[in-house]
Amino acid sequence: MEQEIYKYLNDRFGLSKVLFSSYSWYTGNSSNIYLGPKQIESKLSISSPGIIALRKSKTYKPTTNFLQLFGSHIKKSIFTISSKETIDFCQGKDIIPNSSNHENLIPGFVAVAYETRILGCGHWNGKNLSCLIPKSRRMHLSIPTQ
How many CB atoms are located within 10 Å of the residue 51 CB? Predict the structure, then answer.
């Protein structure tokens, strides 16, 4: 499983295996894959061994937490949006980009960014960017009017 995860993270986001050398991958009782410390004290009763980093179904889906945590290391599959689009995205709205800046981006899960800050996970289908930020973490933002 680990080699498959490393291949996915490198191919999709340009994240090197070396970046995760001080961590271990753990599977949960569902589709959750956790990233946590190399060793877990056996005396502890824990509910999860780290953060949920990925969810596995047909493919891997990175979580918003994971993308935000490792955002400064992501080199590929970054979908940069404008300030207006950022407000819409943070409210959970899908984005239809106005520019052709994303034509060469491979469809699939992407790290959505405003300037250099990773906002969370989105899904790019080649035409629309779907917001995959959990509903509980979405924000109600507005642009101040003059």
Answer: 14
117 or 2, which is more confident: 117
Q: Which CATH architecture has domain 77-137?
A: Roll (3.10)
CB atoms closer than 10 angstroms to residue 47: 5
Strands (E) located in the chain? 23-27, 32-37, 51-56, 60-62, 78-81, 108-114, 117-124, 129-131
Nearest Cα residue to 12 out of 50, 61, 55, 45? 61
Query: Around Cβ 99, how many Cβ atoms within 10 Å?
Result: 9
Three-state secondary-structure class, residue 31: coil
Burial tier of 93 (Cβ tally within 10 Å: 0-12, 13-18, 19+) = middle
Nearest by Cα to 52 from 65, 34, 69:
34
Q: Kindly report, residue by residue over 91-140, the tens digit of the pLDDT.
A: 889 998 877 677 788 999 999 999 999 999 999 999 999 999 877 666 65
Span(s) in the chain for CATH 3.10.450.720: 77-137
